[in-house]
From TrEMBL, chain B:
Membrane association type: Multi-pass membrane protein
Cellular location(s): Cell membrane
GO terms classed as biological process: transmembrane transport
Protein name per its UniProtKB record: Carbohydrate ABC transporter permease
Family statement drawn from the similarity comment of this UniProt entry: Belongs to the binding-protein-dependent transport system permease family.
Keyword match Disulfide bond: no
All residue ranges annotated as the ABC transmembrane type-1 domain in the record: 83-278
Key words of the record: Cell membrane, Membrane, Transmembrane, Transmembrane helix, Transport
Organism expressing this protein natively: Glycomyces terrestris
Entry keyword Phosphoprotein: no
Length: 327, 297
């Protein structure tokens, strides 16, 4: 869902000023008028602050020699950037970083175009019934958990899976792609495509539907065939959305999904499957070095934020709308 | 494709090769998604002998159907209990989330109101700044939620995405409706309940599906915070039995062996079924573009 997710706040925020009906009254008047709204927001604010922003302050343990039992967050000694220095010298951390970036780049090439092609295929279907049936099918796996997706892949491609079963029955050797570190990057990309490419096509379908049909007609009258129309009308028409999602993906380069890798780490080994988020879990929670894990997590968070801001800036420089703009 | 399809006058007749390629890709895509589900369903409905003879998953339906595996599964107290836990968490969590999000989104749909910006930024910044796994883990443990179902529900109760989708929809409702209701003396709660909510059924349905699916599928919060395995939800049992093929550690010290393939596939089916049941009711809204409408503002 990452794609449509992030576009919205911007637009929503951008809409805000136009809806302000009157000039701002005195705050007391507004409070007297708006207290029911505050009451409505209260439960949400309680949860958002209680389970998002207040825990976010706990990132301070990344700078502490955190002793969970004897010191706690208020009694532990500050150690500055020690954990970060250790982090950059830690080969496992480097490996997590390299794996994460490799998977991001790989998926940018092999995953990213799939929803676009899927949307083009669905959009090109003249029969509304057929299109609607296909949509129902391809959206479905999005609602399965990663546990289910991996269980399903295991049953198909694992050592005891259907593919091996068929190969063995025909006198070949079985395969086990679920435990092979060499092909792991292919495996996780296929899983991501299977689970999410269909749902990812929604936003491109919407962009395709928004292209003015008169443009196609005019081009056709001028003698442009279907491929030229695809190249000169369709693709330029959805270019802003493609650029936007590409930028979002770049801004999100350190995120390749936690559950998918965590669930398969024991099967393929950490060499191939260690990514940022699993590193945080294993170095922090599993071994109890909370301060060290928190430092890794904080590093990821800060770099991620910088990437998002930079990507957005780049979008504006390229003349695209970007994710958000100052309203 | 049917001959009744409407095509604009200027459009070329589709070529045979083009049609064939399209048809083939549709069939391949559909099979890639549906075939695994079919063979898993069939295996879960097969007898132990059929599974043995097939040497794994059952592909051909010739050997008859039996609910043996499901009976076995429901006799397994671990699975039965985890199913009830999942249903409970999903029901309670979804109600909490939808109520909180609809109220919050409504309050956010009124720019210029008191405190609007503070609330808005508290939610919008959730898209770009994350507290991180470790701080949340330490916090949830510190406030005494370990081994409580609240540790699963509360950290995921508000999804900024869902709130923003609801808010965008609420803001698209014509302002005149609000004004006339207010002139008639309706308070905010009444406006929400009698005007906004009935108009927003579709988007609320979609958001409900998103929340329900998130709760049903969640296993990681349970894995982090529930030390007592007898409290585990189905998704976590599924992970242990099916993905890890490990016995489930019991609180009593006993462990129950992982079940047979047919029973495993029955567990997979039970984990899938709620999504399959709810999906048709809500998916028409995707096509109507509820989400996109919201997202594109």
């Amino acid at each position: 869902m990452s794609a449509p997710t992030i576009e919205s706040p911007a637009r929503a925020a951008g809409d805000a000023p136009q809806r302000t009906v009157k000039a701002k009254a005195h705050w007391r008047t507004r409070l007297g008028r708006d207290w029911p709204l505050l009451l409505m927001a209260a439960p949400m604010m309680l949860l958002v602050w209680g389970f998002w922003w207040i825990p976010a302050l706990g990132n301070v343990v990344a700078f502490q020699d955190y002793k969970p039992f004897t010191g706690g967050i208020f009694g532990s000694r500050l150690v500055g950037f020690t954990h970060f220095q250790l982090l950059f010298a830690d080969p496992e951390f480097t490996r997590a970083l390299v794996n994460t970036l490799a998977i991001t780049v790989f998926q940018l090439v092999f995953y990213f175009p799939v929803p676009i092609m899927l949307a083009l295929l669905m959009h090109s279907l003249a029969s509304a019934r057929l299109r609607s049936m296909l949509q129902s099918v391809v959206y479905l796996p999005y609602f399965f958990s990663w546990v289910l997706v991996i269980a399903i892949f295991q049953q198909m491609l694992g050592g005891a899976g259907l593919l091996s079963q068929v190969l063995r029955a025909n006198g070949f050797e079985g395969v086990d792609w679920m435990t092979d570190p060499d092909t792991f990057i292919l495996l996780v990309t296929s899983q991501a495509i299977w689970k999410e490419a269909g749902f990812g096509a929604i936003i491109f379908l919407a962009a395709l539907a928004a292209i003015d049909p008169n443009q196609y007609e005019a081009a056709a009258v001028d003698g442009a065939g279907r491929w030229r129309r695809l190249w000169h009308i369709t693709l330029p028409g959805i270019r802003p959305v493609i650029v936007l999602l590409l930028i979002l993906r770049l801004g999100d380069a350190l995120n390749v999904g936690f559950e998918q890798f965590f669930l398969q780490r024991s099967a393929v080994g950490s060499q191939a499957s260690e990514v940022f988020d699993t590193f945080v879990y294993y170095s922090g929670i599993r071994t109890g070095d909370f301060d060290y894990g928190a430092a890794a997590g904080l590093f990821k968070g800060v770099v991620g934020l910088v990437l998002i801001l930079a990507a957005n800036k780049a979008a504006h420089l390229l003349g695209e709308r970007g994710v958000y703009s100052k309203s | 494709m049917s001959a009744k399809v409407k095509r604009a006058a200027w459009e070329e007749k589709p070529t045979v090769a083009g049609q064939a390629a399209k048809g083939a890709s549709i069939v391949v895509i559909a099979l890639l998604i549906l075939f695994p589900l079919y063979t898993i369903a069939l295996t879960s409905l097969s007898s132990a002998e059929t599974v043995n003879r097939a040497g794994g998953l059952v592909v051909w339906p010739g050997d008859g159907i039996t609910f043996e595996a499901y009976e076995q599964m429901f006799r397994n107290p671990v699975v039965l209990r985890s199913l009830l836990v999942s249903l409970g968490i999903t029901a309670v969590g979804t109600v909490i989330s939808v109520v909180v999000s609809v109220l919050g989104a409504y309050s956010l749909s009124r720019p210029g109101s008191f405190g609007h910006k503070t609330v808005l930024f508290s939610v919008l910044l959730m898209f770009v700044i994350f507290p991180g796994l470790i701080p949340v883990y330490l916090w949830v443990s510190a406030i005494g939620l370990r081994d409580s179902y609240l540790a699963i529900i509360l950290p995921m109760a508000v999804s900024a995405f869902n709130v923003v989708v609801l808010r965008a929809f609420f803001m698209s409702i014509p302002q005149e409706l609000f004004d006339s209701a207010r002139i008639d003396g309706a308070g905010e709660f009444r406006v929400l309940w009698q005007i906004v909510a009935p108009l927003s059924k579709a988007v609320i349905a979609v958001v409900t599906l998103f929340y329900a699916v998130a709760y049903w599928n969640n296993w990681f919060n349970a894995f982090l915070y529930l030390d007592d395995t007898s409290k585990w939800p189905l998704a976590l049992v599924l992970r242990t039995y099916v993905v890890e093929s490990a016995p489930l550690p019991q609180a009593s010290g006993l462990s129950s062996a992982p079940p047979t393939l047919a029973v495993k596939m029955a567990i997979v089916m039970v984990a899938i079924i709620p999504a399959l049941i709810m999906y048709p009711f809500v998916q028409k809204h995707f096509k109507k573009g509820v989400i996109i409408g919201a997202v594109k503002g």
